[in-house]
Amino acid sequence: MNSLRKTDLIMLVFGVALFIVLQGLITGRILNSFWQLNLIILCINIILSVSLNLINGYTGQFSLGHAGFMAIGAYVSVVLTTNFHWPFLIALLAGGAGAGFLGFLIGLPTLRLYGDYLAIATLGLGEIIRITIMNIEYVGGAAGFMNIPHNTTFTWAFFLMLATLFIIKNFVNSTHGRACIAIRENEIAAEAMGINTTKYKVMAFTIGAGFAGVAGGLFAHCFYIINPTSFTFMQSFNYLIMVVLGGLGSITGSIAGAFAVTFVSAGLASWPEFRMIIYALMLILLMFYRPQGLFGYIEITDFKIFSRFRGGRKS
Amino acid sequence: MGTMLKIDNINVYYGAIHAIKGISLEVGEGEIVTLIGANGAGKSTTLRTISGLLKPKSGTITFEGKEIAGLAAQDIVKAGISQVPEGRRIFANMTVMENLDLGAFIRKDKEGVQKDLKNVFERFPRLEERKNQEAGTLSGGEQQMLAMGRALMSRPRLLLLDEPSMGLAPLLIREIFSIIADINKTGTTVLLVEQNANMALSIASRAYVLETGRITLSGDAEKLAASEDVRKAYLGG
Questions:
Q1: Which residue from B minimizes the CA distance to A195?
Q2: Residue A59 DSSP label
Q3: Most CB atoms within 10 A, among A144, B4, B174, B207?
Q4: What residues of chain A, 188 to 207, have a C-beta less than 8 Å from chain B?
Q5: CB-based contact, B89 to chain A, within 8 Å
Q6: What is the pLDDT of residues A94-114, one digit of tens each?
Q7: A29-60 pLDDT, tens per residue?
Q8: Is the pLDDT of residue B109 over 80?
Q9: Does B105 contact A315 at a Cβ distance shorter than 8 Å?
């Protein structure tokens, strides 16, 4: 336990140092506005991939509806900040809570499904959310929601990302997290051990959806306008690619996956047709040479160099 | 000797398939009772119904005087029944230690858990040697030991064993069965499902023979082992 806290502290110090450097680059105008926006998008993508990893990687439930939950968080928070002038943070959390609540309601029936069936159900669900939003006049329908305050700064995105990493990492290392991993490893055995599998699947789904909602809120406040086409199932696939690329069951992997996908996509901004070719190639090569993902189940804190800080690994 | 588990006329379905057709059986405290029968007779289905992985359509299951039919699996584990599932079903990517920890998932008494962990390591020294090893890298026999040790970590009063001999070499089967007999001697009641009827009858006190979802014979294990019908059908002559 003690060594875990110490790792958290080291990661926090490292995170703050990284923030100071990046913020310095931004204030010093060394990074232009294109790369600034991409840094913010990277933080948002990390929140999305890590939260999706909790569902798909750690709990082993194949969900394809992450863009839908992101949309809920985005629309709830923009309505609250634009129409009701709520403080930004409270609006983001409300968006997260809304997405989490919907995740809970939908998780209860759908998580009784297995494998492919769950994937199809969540895929459909994401589309239902998007099309429902498209038909609500109050939020602008297909034309989109306008006049959103430009609240998302690099600082907000970075620290909410750190908070997400901290919470999900601690969840995964808790008894609840172990129960989730046991479900992924072998659902029948987990049930035979007395683990309430439905409860833990719904819990992981709810938490994952909640963080997707927060990320959606951050995403929406980067732009002057959002519309439902930002939240199609292709977006869900993007997050899935990040998770699979980095490794199902590794937070470090999800960060790396988000990094790779965000920057490949930014680098190819002028040739968008090539993106899908590059993603497909990356995944094919991955399946050939490293099917468990770049990091597999391993975290950066598992590497030897960290044990020196902790004074040797407990076994 | 009091009755610990009493199953009365249960019916279990897989969709439209009537798998268990009105089975009744009893397990007394301190006994080893075995269910034998051919593939598809309904042995595993009966065990899964007791442990709550399946729900009976009708009938009652009473454990220590309490009705448990239809309870959720975790409540049945809490009541004191633990199952070693068929095919072992260990958590392959976790270490031996993590597997054992998960066996005690429902328990809050940390000291008791530590004590039981020590007992499991005493019973299965090989698990202690390999406690930091990934469970998927263990041999078949060691995996069976881990599955049994994991089930014991919930400190059950009734242990359900589903085909512990599956896929193991004859010498290992002997070892596993002598461990089962030993677990029973130290106070755990055992309900054992086996295709290897010879081995099962050799350690059990009583037995039930299942055929296509019905009990066709029951009685003293020694007598059943000697009976002509059983010998012909299940013991290879």
A1: B74
A2: S
A3: B207
A4: 188-196
A5: yes
A6: 999 999 999 999 999 988 887
A7: 888 889 999 999 999 999 999 999 999 999 99
A8: yes
A9: no
Mean pLDDT of chain A: 91
Can you give the pLDDT at residue B39? 85
Contact assignment for B93 to A189 by CB distance below 8 Å: no
- Cα-based angle A232, A238, A244 (whole degrees, multiple of 5): 140
* A:B CB pairs within 8 Å: 62
Widest Cα–Cα separation across chain A:
60
The verdict on B14 touching A (C-beta cutoff 8 Å) is no
Q: Which residues in B lie closer than 8 A to residue A177 (C-beta atoms)?
A: none
Cβ–Cβ contact B108 with A under 8 A: no
Q: Tell me, what's the ipTM?
A: 0.89
d(CA B131, CA B147) in angstroms, rounded, equals: 13
Asked if residue B53 lies in contact with residue A188, where contact means CB atoms within 8 angstroms, the answer is: yes
The runs of H, that is alpha helices, within chain A are: 2-27, 33-53, 66-78, 88-110, 115-134, 154-172, 175-185, 187-192, 197-220, 233-246, 251-267, 272-289, 304-310
State the average pLDDT over residues A83-93.
Answer: 97
Domains of chain B: 3-80+156-234 (3.40.50.300)
Q: Do B105 and A188 touch (CB under 8 A)?
A: no
Is the confidence at residue A304, as pLDDT, over 80?
no
Query: Does B158 contact chain A (CB < 8 Å)?
Result: no
